[in-house]
Specification:
This protein is mostly beta strands and 227 residues long. It has one helix at 2-30, and strands spanning 38-47, 50-53, 59-62, 65-75, 80-97, 107-125, 131-160, 164-190, 195-206, 215-226.
Length: 227
């Protein structure tokens, strides 16, 4: 009985060494699979709702919104990646306007907020293996169309989807372009040397004149190709 147990123990140890050797060999062979490769990716995103507060009690209550981003990246090595990402989104929001006369009632109205952004980022993958956690940071610029009329009417001709070429008066809205920056964490998995996915969460800050912190939490899923 002891001889059988001894043989089983020896066999188990041998199998363990074989398995560890196989994993080690695969990991070693994969070490540089991302290095010096370009990437193209699509990134569906969901951004949480946010209430922005301004002077004298004015507010903008922005609904949760979804968007689709895309971008390009370059892997300096298996750990460090640089990328540029483009995104746009539409969100409904409720604004609260505070009248100058304190005896008057604040006015609430609904509008549609449009944003588009370009971001330059850097990602650090902690491991060289196919599955790795990562951290990222980004800086960029965000264009904002508040949907709030300026009261100015302009006349012009535009190409519209479905409707085609239309000329007529158009009401201008308040717009601005702001600096933004952020950071995120997540997981990456490379299926092979050409296809990968990422999932993560990030916090982005937009440099606007709100009285509370203008931070937005975004969850994203990335599907990408290496070449």
């Amino acid at each position: 009985m002891q001889i059988i147990r001894h043989r089983l123990l020896n066999s188990s140890v041998k199998l363990l060494f074989i398995a560890l050797s196989f994993i080690s060999t695969n990991a070693h062979a994969y070490n540089d699979s991302r290095a010096d490769k370009w990437e193209f990716f699509l990134a569906p995103q969901v951004t949480n709702s946010k209430v922005l507060q301004f002077d004298n009690g004015a507010e903008a209550d922005i609904n949760k919104r979804s968007s689709l981003a895309f971008g390009f990246g370059y892997n300096l090595n298996a750990n460090v990646e640089f990328d540029v990402q483009f995104a746009s989104s539409n969100a409904n929001y409720t604004s609260t306007a505070i009248p100058e006369n304190p005896t008057e009632t604040p006015t609430k109205s609904s509008s549609s907020l449009y944003t588009s952004s370009i971001n330059f980022g850097v990602t650090y993958n902690f491991l060289k293996s196919p599955l790795t956690p990562y951290v990222s940071a980004n800086i960029g610029s965000t264009y904002i169309d508040s949907g709030i009329p300026t009261g100015k009417i302009v006349t012009g001709c535009y190409w519209y989807p479905y409707y085609g070429y239309i000329c007529g008066p158009i009401e201008e809205t308040y717009t601005s372009t702001e600096f933004n920056y952020g950071a995120g964490i997540g997981l990456r998995y490379d299926f092979n040397r050409k296809v990968y996915i990422k999932g993560g969460v990030g916090k982005n800050y937009i440099d606007i004149n709100s009285s509370n912190t203008p931070d937005f939490t975004t969850y994203h899923f990335i599907f990408g190709f290496m070449f």
